[in-house]
Design a protein that fits this description.
Blueprint: H1 2-40, H2 53-57, H3 63-134, H4 141-163, H5 174-199, H6 201-206
Length: 207
């Protein structure tokens, strides 16, 4: 009820502003044109449109009115172009938002499925690796690194799907989502290379 009252009040205010603008603009333009006619007419002018229609409508007193109509038409044309451009931009933005929301929903669904079927199994592998290291046993890198990469990839995918859309600067286009995901994956690969250099510096130098 309160929202309806506010909407009606807003419509009433807009309508009142239109009426005021119409009356004020009409009076101002009318007085302005009459003043121009007053200074343009050096003698009394009698228009007989029935006998001389073309001569009457293109006579000197009619020129200010013609110029006003011309300026009004030009202003209307430019306003129409701006409104059309704004409408197209709004529609394009709406389409982009729909695409982004669709991609994010698909990513969230896919991430949930991956977390359900992969994360649990991978966590068991990570727990086994931690247990082996706690017992002083050596764990093959062929087992450890892929498991860590899977965990990091799932975490990155979760961040892109569930965290970034609700941040201060959410992705506005589909390619923004792709860039975020590629950036996260690049960070994972870079971090893994840094670990290799730290653990096996001599091997990296030889290669």
């Amino acid at each position: 009820m309160k929202t309806q009252n506010l909407t009606r009040a807003h419509v009433g205010i807009n309508f009142g502003n239109l009426v005021i603008a119409f009356i004020t603009g009409g009076l101002f333009i009318h007085v302005f044109i009459m003043l121009l006619d007053y200074y343009l007419m050096a003698w009394p002018l009698y228009l007989n449109l029935r006998e001389n229609f073309m001569g009457g409508i293109f006579s000197a007193p009619m020129l200010p009115m013609m110029a006003t109509y011309g300026l009004f038409s030009v202003a209307t044309y430019f306003l129409w172009k701006k409104m059309k451009k704004a409408a197209l931009l709004a529609r394009e933005q709406e389409i982009q938002n729909e695409k982004v929301n669709s991609v994010l929903k698909s990513m969230q669904t896919m991430t949930g499925m991956l977390a359900e079927h992969i994360a649990i199994q991978n966590s068991q592998i990570l727990n086994w690796i931690a247990l082996q290291k706690a017992q002083g046993r050596t764990v093959s890198e062929k087992v450890q690194q892929p498991s860590e990469k899977i965990a990091a990839t799932l975490q990155s995918l979760s961040e892109v799907a569930f965290v970034f859309p609700y941040a201060e600067n959410p992705p506005k286009k589909v390619r923004d989502i792709e860039s975020l995901l590629k950036g996260k994956l690049f960070q994972i690969e870079r971090y893994r290379d840094m670990l290799k250099e730290t653990v096996h510096p001599q091997k990296v130098i030889q290669r």
